[in-house]
């Protein structure tokens, strides 16, 4: 007996929910933005099966070390989705990736992205890529390729997620890290632009589920709506950190992301040493206090989840402090001496936070 076709004709990719034409349209719309995020070493253009980067640039290094990092932006994408604002989330993605690269002293060279959607809306996808491209420009790296995947049935039509991977290079004898840190070194903190891209599961739980706030709520402490505050893009420090390594002696960086200041700084503190960070040297942005009060969140919980106003830490010798602060100030980065490195002694922990935040 011959097989019968389902009602409505034979099956197709489009009938399954995947719109190839919409994907092609999205590629066309994003081309102008990708062209802006380039470097002289990029070979070819958008549309190939792989991005090409001329590795002969590495010949100028004696012993080039390639650095690689990958990340996403977590549940911050939910804020972008709810607000229908898609051209800033890419800044967050780039910041999460390239600022991990620069921690070891690596110059970011190129990035690729992965965008997963429930349904391809070309203008929406192009807006996401626009933000990624703009972030790459701010980081001095190229966007050499990416992938947009449509997952009907797994994601709702308005749902999406983004991820990215980056590659950088550093001269082996200029590699930064724990082995360079010495007693007497100073911790210089660089101000964050707010929450950045970590802790949004806690923030959403507190402000939406418990406090019942809406994204269009005007919040006096912010001077703008809740949604505008939560969507503030992650500050990208890559070029600032690279400039700092050219003008001052830098021993290590710590990118303050998920896990908070103490946990991330501990990753670059040698076993025999200890970092003391004085909270009284800065005042966290109001968003951190608002989240704490709205959810009755204890300070220890906030500090192990959110950056509390510090996005990057540089560890420098005492004699480099003045030039380091001047360099960062000249680049428009708010920075200050936040602590010091000493012998650990009998302390079990690598990092201690002391004092109370300045009011």
UniProtKB/TrEMBL annotation:
Domain PurM-like N-terminal, chain residue ranges per copy: 54-170
Q: Which SUPFAM superfamilies match?
A: PurM C-terminal domain-like (SSF56042), PurM N-terminal domain-like (SSF55326)
The UniProt record lists the EC number as: 6.3.3.1
Kindly list the places in or outside the cell where this protein is found, as annotated in its UniProt entry: Cytoplasm
Tell me the pathway: Purine metabolism; IMP biosynthesis via de novo pathway; 5-amino-1-(5-phospho-D-ribosyl)imidazole from N(2)-formyl-N(1)-(5-phospho-D-ribosyl)glycinamide: step 2/2
Domain of life of the source? Bacteria
Catalytic activity annotated for this protein? 2-formamido-N(1)-(5-O-phospho-beta-D-ribosyl)acetamidine + ATP = 5-amino-1-(5-phospho-beta-D-ribosyl)imidazole + ADP + phosphate + H(+)
Q: Which InterPro entries match?
A: PurM-like_C_dom, PurM-like_C_sf, PurM-like_N, PurM-like_N_sf, PurM_cligase
Pfam families named in the record: AIRS, AIRS_C
Q: Name the keywords, alphabetized.
A: ATP-binding, Cytoplasm, Ligase, Nucleotide-binding, Purine biosynthesis
- A GO molecular function for this record? phosphoribosylformylglycinamidine cyclo-ligase activity
- Annotated PurM-like C-terminal domain ranges read 182-346
Annotated GO biological processes are: 'de novo' IMP biosynthetic process; adenine biosynthetic process
Q: What is this protein's name? A: Phosphoribosylformylglycinamidine cyclo-ligase
Q: Which organism is it from?
A: Streptomyces buecherae
